[in-house]
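Supplementary notes for students who missed Thursday's class. We covered one full example, reproduced here. Read the sequence, then the structure, then the short commentary at the end.
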Amino acid sequence: MVRFFSGNNPFNVIILFFLGIFIKLPYFITPVIPQPSETDGFLYIQLLNTLQQTGNSFPTIYPILAYVLLFTQAITFNGLINNQKLFATPHYLLALAYLVITSVVPEWNVLSPVLIINTIMVWAWPRMVGLYNHPSPKTVLFNIGFGFGLTSFFYFPSVYLLLLLIIALLLFRPFYLTEWLLAVLGILTPFYFLLVYFFVWDRWEMAAELIPQLVLKLPDATFDWKFWIEFGLISFALVIGLLMGLKFSARMLVQTRKSWNYMIFYLIIALIIPFVNSSAGLSHWILAVVPVSLFHAAFYYYPKKKNFAELILWLQLIWIVSNYVVLNSR
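Structure (token representation):
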């Protein structure tokens, strides 16, 4: 399977679409209705309220929306990686890794605020790494800042993703005060429009809920044998792929090396953010899937002999199928 998706055949998109449906089939058969938590932003809660009536009569709408987001993120990010030439040849390994990784952890197949935020991050990533050669980046920086500001309306701890914008400016641009100010202006713009809404509709009581108290704490998760299997299946390929990516990117152009290094910062920040106001389960760690999928793709791509990579992939698929039995036995 790794060899098959190592090519750049557009037909792979169709195969990935049906493969994704197959490995996520239990979530369509036994849909999970998402429940709001204290860390969720008001836009996500408003989305759930909008979907509530439809969801009561047709609960499959939730896994359908989740899969549409996951599949479009996988294919879009795969295409962006190919366009940025982070690998020597284009392929569909990243999209494969994205769909498989999100199927390994059951919580990552639920419509969550962080899943929605990943769409914004996939949109913002090529704009951030492309700042180095952009002739007029001011509009781009404003748009990126606007997108980052909007993420906090879905999941407020995601405000710490702003560190990624700071790192991108430091890595890919010389210092220009006007560019930094425009980025800050973009970040503040969604909050400005929100305050205008509060003023016009006299909804100032909602302002107190906009910025919750931020507390660092461990996730309310069960660290049983299932957790460690999922952790091993993801982290083993992640570590090897990270080392391979750094090794082979050293032979590439300076900007390509910076893009690889940037993804390491992305990974670290995405792994830390869910500790802020952590809620039950592992759902918020899907924020790290974007960089993790890149390093998994490197794990599949770089070895000349694909046997070991194939073994890990099939172990992941076996674990995914074994979850069918667990879900169907409930």
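Commentary. The chain has a mean pLDDT of 85. Residues 2-328 form one domain. If anything here is unclear, bring it to office hours.
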